[in-house]
Design brief:
Layout lengths: L4 E11 L7 E6 L20 E4 L12 H5 L5 E4 L2 E4 L1 H4 L6 H5 L5 E4 L1 E4 H10 L1 H4 L4 E6 L6 H13 L3 E6 L5 H8 L4 E5 L5 H8 L4 H12 L5 E8 L7 H14 L3 E6 L5 H6 L14 H13 L3 E4 L6
Parallel strand pairs: 2-8, 8-9, 9-10, 10-11, 11-12, 12-13
Antiparallel strand pairs: 1-2, 1-7, 3-6, 4-5
Bound molecules: iron/sulfur cluster (SF4) (2 copies).
């Protein structure tokens, strides 16, 4: 992966919750965080990988095609259920198991694109964007493949495409700022204001993230910035955390926040990767709590949007 080659795990046309208007969202592979509630755990590593759906698998009916097709003997069966030894799959480019699986229980995740090919793909959607839409780079974490993303944002902008990014801002300041130069609209995730709690739930501290947000605003960056917070009951919806966020926003000069109630839509993907989903017992705060948070931020003279019904 370099300026001209990027690994992408999905491209979605007609996205209406990833920035202004109708957009095409490019989901970049690779992430520096490992949030316990992640809805896209298949994005964590910037490489091709195999997703396995037990529901589709016909091993119980006697199918063994993938076991025979794997050159590394990474697939085994116990009590008529397929198991993939993920360590043996590392850096496998053969992916012969996927080709062998006729029921599509095995699926490839991650595709290499050249910058030219991606631009061509994006241009196909141009008619659907209208005057307000454009392209959003999401992930995973787009800053992991920053050379490629910076190049793409620059090329999009140079032909008049509106650019947006959804990022954790977890990158060295010079990398972050270099990418943001080419961005018109940004969502930056702030998952927790407490350093230790942030580290506990995401695998990294929040120092770099908060510093990058401050520096971005201080630099006079002309784009629109909205902070995004996944709201999880008992994890980050407490008064202390919300007060700290409002204070940070006021001091940093950020005035818009989007609270996204937690959902479990990513749970099946954890299973397909053979991982245990840590957020099984978690839930979103109830509507009364969400309304009280909205009122709280509004009283702090901050624009607060709850959920995905937003003006962007
Ligand atoms: S990805 Fe490669 S090593 Fe892993 S099961 Fe498939 S063929 Fe075997
Ligand atoms: S080839 Fe597909 S359907 Fe057959 S056992 Fe393997 S995963 Fe299951």
């Amino acid at each position: 992966m370099d300026t001209n080659h990027g690994m992408i795990f999905d491209i979605q046309s007609h996205s209406i919750h990833d920035g202004p208007g109708s957009r095409t969202t490019v989901f970049m592979s690779g992430c520096s965080l490992s949030c316990q509630w992640c809805a896209n755990p298949e994005s964590w590593q910037a490489r091709e990988k195999v997703l396995f759906s037990e529901l589709r698998c016909e091993a119980k009916q006697g199918c063994r095609r993938c076991i025979e097709a794997c050159p590394r003997r990474a697939i085994s069966i116990a009590e008529r259920v397929i198991a993939i030894n993920r360590a043996d799959c590392q850096s496998c480019h053969a992916l012969t198991c996927i080709e062998a699986c006729l029921s599509r229980a095995l699926k490839k995740c991650g595709e290499y694109y050249t910058a030219d090919a991606l631009l061509q793909r994006l241009q196909h959607d141009r008619d659907f964007w209208g005057s307000t839409g454009g392209v959003t780079f999401s992930g995973g974490e787009p800053l992991v493949q920053h050379h490629f993303v910076e190049n793409m944002l620059h090329r999009c902008r140079s032909i008049g495409i509106h650019t947006a990014i959804e990022t954790t801002a977890y990158a060295r300041e010079e990398i972050f700022m270099a990418v943001m130069r080419h961005v018109d609209f940004a969502f930056i995730d702030v998952k927790h204001m407490d350093y230790q709690a942030h580290h506990h739930y995401t695998g990294v501290g929040n120092g770099l993230i908060l510093n990058n947000i401050r520096e971005l605003v201080k630099s006079g960056w002309p784009g629109r910035l909205v902070l995004r917070v996944p709201i999880i009951a008992g994890v980050n919806d407490g008064d202390k955390n919300m007060r700290a966020l409002a204070t940070f926003m006021e001091h940093a000069g950020v005035y818009e926040v989007n609270l996204l109630p937690f959902h479990r839509l990513g749970e099946s993907k954890w299973q397909q990767l053979g991982k245990i989903y840590p957020a099984r017992e978690w839930h979103a705060p109830d509507t009364t709590k969400l309304s009280s948070l909205e009122t709280f931020f509004t009283q702090q003279r901050l624009l607060c949007y709850v959920g995905s019904d937003t003006p962007f």
